[in-house]
Amino acid sequence: MRRTLEAIFRHPFQLLTLLVLLPLIGVAVAYFATPKTYQSTASLWVLQRYAVIGATGPETNLTSTPAMTQSAALTSLLQTRTFVQSVINGIGFVPTLHLSASVLNDPQQLQDAVVSELSKNVVATVNGPNLVVITYSNRDPRIAQQIIQAVITQFQMQSLAVSKAEGNSLLASYQVDLQQAQKSDDTAVAAEAQYLAAHPRVTQAPSSDPQYAQLDAARVQAENHLHTIQSSINALQQSLLTVVMTLLSSINPWYLHAPNRVPKITSLAAAAVWGLLSWPSSFSL
Questions:
Q1: CATH topology for 38-261?
Q2: For 168, which of 13, 21, 179, 252 is 20 to 30 Å away at the CA?
């Protein structure tokens, strides 16, 4: 023990140099050995709430802000294989994941890895009533920015496609009801006309004939039902047009940030100082 202390006090400069160099070497190794990550960010200004076509027409969550509904819808879509596949089409995305050969050679595992990557790492954050911030990090800054741009584009396109499909399905059911209502109205009109042809004097005192009054009431009811369905169809068509126009204009890329290193360290010297203050530490640059 005494000899150790004597060696330390005889060579204080060498010991101090060692204490300084070790953290610097550790930081340098971490800096150059750890894969660099770049983050791309897009700020979206949302004008309207996300709406879907329900049994009675467009429906939305009126208790949430437009940004909250749009963020929730995007997060849900990111969990689906169809949406993720549409996002990465045409982007050299898979090589940046550095997957093993076994995963690359298995289509199911590869798809699972891709869906997991985007569903976990593409993050939509609400930053105000009308502002959604979308971020994604990747080792390639160009890929990070392309993914963000594709997510925004596909979100608009698939939201529009879903609304149109739901609207067309509801319109189809209304058309079936309309055809049935039209047949009922034609039948009621024909029955009343046939009765009048057989009893022409009824027109002189229609209220005195209970059977005619019943036929006339049935005709009026059939016509009202027909007009109600037709009005519902017209209102739904107008609502669909409104939803489509809203989807096309409600999400605007307010600002698309250039990819940045994550986290940002201005210089190796600053990193070294941080290493000295918190040694031992691990760094993820």
A1: Bacterial polysaccharide co-polymerase-like (3.30.1890)
A2: 252
